[in-house]
């Protein structure tokens, strides 16, 4: 049974790290990295996306071998989304579509409707995709009679019209919104990150999370505005590609399991720690129950409340 579904782009990535290391033709994309992050904690994870014809069969096979359902992946026209991922530092990176790539926004149209078996999932993560598609998915999924858990992440790269996110009414459809601090500052330019998170968490009754990279994340609970810092877990960092997406997958798996927002963030932090220790989503270790519990306990011990307003469990 499919319990958690990620919706978004699959990519074929040529990754160039700041130290000059190159990894070519790596299966990636927000839909895949978030599915891997969720699968660390949850069985029954599926992906709704499309893959380019040259990569379709191999991509689906490798995803299925990982234990993630690939029946929601269709074959698109052309090569699919092919990206250069350029890491200029440990913090700054950019995605550049290759000349041979399909149009990113066009892939949203080719994805089509959810498979029937996915429509009954208890939780969905809207991974990075075109803004119009992200907002449309939030509205469609939010109107389902089953009232599933909905989480959403975004992109603000140069090939994305990120101004479409300025009006935040779409948050009313979501359970949790998980952009990065850099994206929040680039799009909404708040004078105070903490105040922005609290105001919108209360106004839209949506858990608000700011991903801070190596500094962890800020978690703001819906309705109460209770703000908590969840630190990153020290890890043997190899490649930070997909770290934020893996975090989102762990977070939505926590929501599906009925955890508190802070508990979800702790699980998300563990997922991200495994993502950065590998190069490529499908190279990520699938930890044992004891291994991930040990990491979870380390994160939980370092959690720091920043403001009152609600209980933390």
TrEMBL record:
Domain Carbohydrate kinase PfkB as annotated: residue spans: 139-284
Protein name: Ribokinase
Transmembrane segments: none
PROSITE patterns per record: PFKB_KINASES_2
PANTHER family reported in the protein's UniProt record: PROTEIN MAK32
SUPFAM superfamilies linked to this entry: Ribokinase-like (SSF53613)
Organism of origin: Phyllobacterium trifolii
EC number of this enzyme: 2.7.1.15
MF-aspect GO terms: ribokinase activity
Broad class of enzyme this protein falls into: transferase
Signal peptide: none
Keyword hit for Ribonucleoprotein: no
Entry keywords, A to Z: Kinase, Transferase
The organism's place on the tree of life at top rank: Bacteria
């Amino acid at each position: 049974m499919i319990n958690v579904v990620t919706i978004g782009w699959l990519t074929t990535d040529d990754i160039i790290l700041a130290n000059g290391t190159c990894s070519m033709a790596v299966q990636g994309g927000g839909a895949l990295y978030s599915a891997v992050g969720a699968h660390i904690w949850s069985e029954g994870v599926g992906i709704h996306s499309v893959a380019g014809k040259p990569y379709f069969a191999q991509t689906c096979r490798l995803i299925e071998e990982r234990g993630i359902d690939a029946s929601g992946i269709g074959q698109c026209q052309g090569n699919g989304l092919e990206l250069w991922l350029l890491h200029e530092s440990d913090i700054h990176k950019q995605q550049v579509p290759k000349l041979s790539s399909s149009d990113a926004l066009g892939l949203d149209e080719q994805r089509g409707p959810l498979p029937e078996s996915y429509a009954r999932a208890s939780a969905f993560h809207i991974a990075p995709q075109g803004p119009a598609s992200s907002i449309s998915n939030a509205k469609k999924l939010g109107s389902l009679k089953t009232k599933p858990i909905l989480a959403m992440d975004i992109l603000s790269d140069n090939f994305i019209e990120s101004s479409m996110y300025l009006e935040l009414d779409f948050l009313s459809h979501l359970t949790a919104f998980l952009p990065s601090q850099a994206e929040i500052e680039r799009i909404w330019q708040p004078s105070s990150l903490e105040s922005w998170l609290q105001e919108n968490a209360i106004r839209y009754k949506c858990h608000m999370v700011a991903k801070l990279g190596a500094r962890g994340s800020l978690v703001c609970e819906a309705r109460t505005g209770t703000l908590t810092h969840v630190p990153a877990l020290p890890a043997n960092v190899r490649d930070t590609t997909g770290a934020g997406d893996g975090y989102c997958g762990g977070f939505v798996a926590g929501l599906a399991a009925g955890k508190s927002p802070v508990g979800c963030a702790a699980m998300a932090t563990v997922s991200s720690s495994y993502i950065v220790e590998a190069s490529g989503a499908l190279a990520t270790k699938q930890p044992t129950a004891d291994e991930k519990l040990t990491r979870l306990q380390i994160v939980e011990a370092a959690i720091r409340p920043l403001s009152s307003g609600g209980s933390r469990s």
